[in-house]
Structure prediction request, 356 residues.
Amino acid sequence: MGVMKRVSTIFRAKANKALDKMEDPRETLDYSYTTQLELLQKVRRGVADVATSRKRLELQLNQVQQQSDKLDRQARDALAAGREDLAREALTRKAASQAQITDLQTQYASLQGEEEKLTAASQRLQAKVDAFRVKKETIKATYTAAEAQTRINEVFTGISEEMSDVGLAIQRAEDKTEQMKARAGAIDELMASGALTDMVSGPSDDIQAELDRLGAGHSVDAELAQMKAELAGGAAPKELAGSSGAADAAPGQSAEQPAAEDAR
Amino acid sequence: MIIRILGEGQLRVDDEAVDELNHLDVALEAAVEKHDEAAFEAALHALLTRARELGTELAADAIEPSDLILPREGATIAEVRELLADGGLVSG
Prediction:
């Protein structure tokens, strides 16, 4: 017997076992309906849990992305100021946050897929539970206990299979959500303990401080050069000062692009 | 015949078409027995793809037991073994 047949046999056996426990077949219908409603609640809670986990990941993803953008800007500023060592440091930290982003994006996509599947499962179950409610009343009104047995078997086995399927989907989603919560918690902890903060935002403040100092130094140098040129009465240094100003503006503009993409 | 793909829903498939699916199922079963994860993945994907092509979706409000049940897309050998061992099925 192939895999497909064996799995279906096991699902049926499970349903039959539950059926055998009931004295009056019609009692089975009411009992099953109660279980179905409980499962519907459970699958809806599952969808909500997955969505919460997904939103938390989204938040973390945005935070790390902002830090990465900031490091990128700082690297450009550092390079424009002629500090390759500082730019290298910023880019190294940016690479670390990029790796984090890639990982978070993978998790996010996987959780999104789980959410979609569970939402679809919830809708399928809802449609079947509604249909079952109607069938249940028809069977109870139309047939005697003995006559109802065959019809009940069919309907019960069908709905039981659906419930097993949905049950497996919920279990999977729960496992995944737990894993994700643990991961998100670990990242939060890292941020709080300073490991990631040090890697990203903490030292980038150091980078920023050094860049600011360089920026101030640069304007003093420029002003000095300007004064020297004026005293000497030459026009050429003025042009030089103007062109270096344009070079400073260029990295600033390109550094804004990733931030604009992020905003979309 | 009615086929369920776990996690996706049910399909109605012509009896003649089932032969082809059974053939693909043989490869799947062999992979489970040999514990060959790569072969299993390929066999399951082939089986699911063909089942989706051959089948037509059952109405959402139809309540019918399936003749054949397929593992979900992306399932592992361990998962299928658990299914076959009646692992964690919700009873109705």
Observations:
- Chain A touches chain B through 47 residues (CB under 8 Å).
